[in-house]
Design a protein that fits this description.
YaeB-like fold, 5 strands
Amino acid sequence: MKVVFHRNFKKQYKKLGAVQKKFDQRLILFTRDPLNPVLNNHALAGKYRGFRSINVTGDYRAIYELVNGESALFITIDTHSNLYK
């Protein structure tokens, strides 16, 4: 699966510090098998309806949108509480 990053995602990623390494590991898993159980890949509702989320750490989530069924556009990454206020 092709992965693309929104510019806002890139800005947030730069601020993550140690979580960057964990996201990089999860991204490798995602590109090999987007539905790997470790990722807890699931559809979202509410303000993120139409998007999907994967777990990066116990608290961090990365939200993406499937584009043409072939690409994943990652739009944001942050803590669970900040994303779902």
